[in-house]
Fold each of these.
Amino acid sequence: MKLFIDNRTPYLNDYYFQTLCLLYFPGEKFKADDDGFNRASFSLAPEDGSGYRFKAEVTLVSGGRSAHGEFSGGYTPQIEMPAGEFFATNAIGKAFLRAGEKLFGFGLPWGYLSGLRPVKRAKYYLDRGFSPETVRGLFTLDYGASAEKAGLAVETALTEEGMLASVSPDDCGIYVSIPFCPTRCDYCSFVSYSNKKLFDLIPDYLEKLCRDISLTGELVRELGMRPRAVYIGGGTPSILESAQIDKLLTRIENSFELGAGTEYSFEGGRPDTLTDEKLRTVRAHGVDRISINPQSTSDSVLLNIGRKHTVKDFFDAVEASKKYGFSCRNADLIAGLPGDDEESFAKSVSDVLNCGFENITVHTLSIKNAAPIRFIGDGFYDPRGRFARESVVFARKALAGRGLRPYYLYRQKNTVGNSENTGFSLPGKENLYNVLMMEEYSTVFACGAGAITKFVSPDRSLIARHAFPKYPFEYLREDKGIGREEALAFFGKT
Ligand code: SF4
């Protein structure tokens, strides 16, 4: 995609204009020599020196058609904002939405809001005493979001508020990464080894991971912190053999104080990896939350996305899990998958509800750069995402009808239909780890390849990161430590 940017303000950089374009053109690359299908030109200039008044013009071109949008003059936001960036962004955002709506015939559900965490924004203003109604107005009137999304952001923020009320500055999360999958799904860009030859690394990987878990346990104690949520994720943790799962969970229990109030989750993920024996092993270690992710309960859709398991595998795993009395089971669905339609998506939603999942995450297909689906060709998925947009609204209504409410939400770049990913749950069955991590509310110590520890200061004003090497091979080869020195310095314990 080619961009022409005439920005006569100091508030926005070229990257911001690119981010804006991705809202209507998910997956686009920006190249100066691109003479292709899609183009955008932006003009933004102050109307006076106040920092409150800007003139913006946007022209979008796609497939030989073009549309123009403008905005000029001052604007009174719902909440008083300092002069400058907010008003410049508002002007260009509104001109962009006007052009996009004319060209594509639909409004963006989140308006021009390009940040990935709308709930954090909603919570910020709710915490400062603004009413839910004012915050909803901020989303609809200022950012141009739909009333449905404004309501979703505020409802989610209010649920999170209740969940986080009992979280103290000494509480932390623990994440353990198993970046191996039985095969690679076509929509996935996650760093995960799915090549059988590389599975030979698993024993050494586990050995090093267990060592890092022990060291992290020592660090958590030294910092006087308390694990409130432990999450074993991937990849596909259930790719491990039962004996390996047993070894991993034993090490976790020996390294951290896991009290009755510690949430303990294991991401089964791919149903074809979950055997009765593995479920029994996980449960025997006190893990009481598990994910079993179908993504869709249509075999033809699963085939389209290269998921390499069947709907029967999913139902079998669900039946097996019922024997072990997990207090919370989570299922993931994806809206906007190639070959899915209203009927098959509605069936997926009703199947997971009828299976009795207490916690259901509804993702939207995101076309990431590294995902094989991106290269399959035009027409395989709908990047504009009408179906995805409608599906997530449908799912929210259906889940609400069975008592599941939104408790965490995030957006990704390049999501079809500019939709979101939302975790829903029955009251009390929310996943605290997801919220601590997504809202950067508490320190989350991570272990394993591709994992990132985030240190969050007690007043939550500062965040620092320690990243582990991205790939299992690098993780084994390079010893970057667990970030102990960074942690002690960050928390003033040196
Ligand atoms: S199971 Fe999950 S992490 Fe693994 S390849 Fe598929 S989508 Fe990616």
Amino acid sequence: MGMARAQIRPATVRSFGGRAAALAATGLLGSAAAAEAAGTGQPVPWQMDLQRPVTEVATEIYNFHHLLNWIMLAVVLFVLALLIAVVVKFNEKKNPTPSRTTHNTMLEVAWTIVPVLILVAIAIPSFRVLRTQLSDPKADLMVKVIGHAWYWSYEYPEDVGGFKFDANLLEGDDQVKSGQPKLLATDNEMVVPVNKIVKIQVTAADVMHSWAMPSFGFKIDAVPGRLNQFWFKADREGTYHGQCSELCGQRHAYMPITVKVVSDQAFQAWTAEAKTKFARTDGGAKFADANR
Ligand SMILES: [Cu+2]
């Protein structure tokens, strides 16, 4: 197995209970707007929630994130209640002669055991997510992803045509015409079939980059001289956007990632077209993987 070092997109805690916020948004904005509230494949203005997950890994991370938020909310409310009780009931006026009690065995056992139980409750789903991430299933398609300063290139293996192309930022009129979001659209997209296990092998040609796709639930470092590997199985067709997530220099913000998830037939059609469009003479990339 490759040295897959997958990093989860930092589960930024934007609000207590993103789902609650999303539900509130449903009420306020109506269902049509709420359907977009989480953002599918791209962020949206006033987004409260994580982007909608489209892979198993992303779904597990998403659910784990919300579980953590609820646990955190409970802990915060409990501590707040204790603080309020102390301030209200045990202030100097109401309680002029404080108790001199220093030990209470039951209480000490409880405040040791309860946090341990909370951590165990967090650890179990956490390790479950880790197991899914590192499960390394057999790939239906492998794509080599290479980070450059400042664009990405993609190599498809011989069995689907053996071609390589660059994906540069779409700017100006081209971006407007494409209808794709600003600073997230690329001139060529990585295209993969839906419901197929896609493995990417990620490296860099110059400096360190990081291939990150929020709705797929992972980011993976692109390190010169090293091959990192991760897998995903997108369960919904669509266009998904990500960005380089390792500060790599002047145009770090201008090397977005676009992945198109399409049906099997559309993928066949695309590879047939890509083979001539991105013609190459050396037969395509070679892939090293224990599972192939
Ligand atoms: Cu970068």
